[in-house]
Amino acid sequence: MTSESQFITRLQNPASKETAFRELLNLYKERLYWHIRKIVVSHDDADDVLQNTFIKVYRSIDNFKGESKLYSWLYRIATNESITFIKKNAKRLQISDEEHQNNAINNLQADVYFEGDEIQLKLQQAIASLPQKQQLVFNMKYFDNIKYKDMAEILDTSEGALKASYHIAVKKIEGFLTED
């Protein structure tokens, strides 16, 4: 039995679930926060989505079959929760998902948790100009250095499609950053 499968067994065992879940939180909280933050942009929104992600993980862990790596499963839930959050907010505000993302980027300078400079802001604007799938692929590859194989599990698509999406995203970002 590998250590991951032992950990999953502890997460699924009512006697050890609480302790194991606290370990899971400590292991993945920060990485998932930054993954979510890159998608939803705002710190407060990222906190909310992270909380929703871990609630969903806690409620669903008994159904985890181990067909993917645990962290791939966690990232998939975090990604889906982030996308759902954006769609729900955009619908509530009666704007498109893209408009919602652009508003979030425009509000980034006012975010007390944003520590970037002008260049960071411009990069975030460039990323926000991409279609959602390209944003996800770019962020996961560029910032999180996630392998295409793992990304394919998380996003449920082929490695070839992900490589193409990343290449296109990089070209679009380069174009955005070099235009005046």
UniProtKB/TrEMBL annotation:
Q: Which domain of life is it from?
A: Bacteria
SUPFAM superfamilies from the xrefs? Sigma2 domain of RNA polymerase sigma factors, Sigma3 and sigma4 domains of RNA polymerase sigma factors
Q: Which residues form the RNA polymerase sigma factor 70 region 4 type domain?
A: 121-173
Q: One Pfam family for this entry, by name?
A: Sigma70_r4_2
Occurrences of domain RNA polymerase sigma-70 region (ranges): 26-91
Q: Which Gene3D superfamilies match?
A: 1.10.1740.10, Winged helix-like DNA-binding domain superfamily/Winged helix DNA-binding domain
Q: Which InterPro entries match?
A: RNA_pol_sigma-70-like (IPR039425), RNA_pol_sigma-70_dom (IPR014284), RNA_pol_sigma70_ECF_CS (IPR000838), RNA_pol_sigma70_r2 (IPR007627), RNA_pol_sigma70_r4_t2 (IPR013249), RNA_pol_sigma_r2 (IPR013325), RNA_pol_sigma_r3/r4-like (IPR013324), WH-like_DNA-bd_sf (IPR036388)
Q: Does the keyword DNA-binding apply?
A: yes
Assigned keywords, A-Z: DNA-binding, Sigma factor, Transcription, Transcription regulation
UniProt similarity note: Belongs to the sigma-70 factor family. ECF subfamily.
Query: What name appears for this protein in its UniProt entry?
Result: RNA polymerase sigma factor
Q: Name the lineage.
A: Bacteria, Pseudomonadati, Bacteroidota, Flavobacteriia, Flavobacteriales
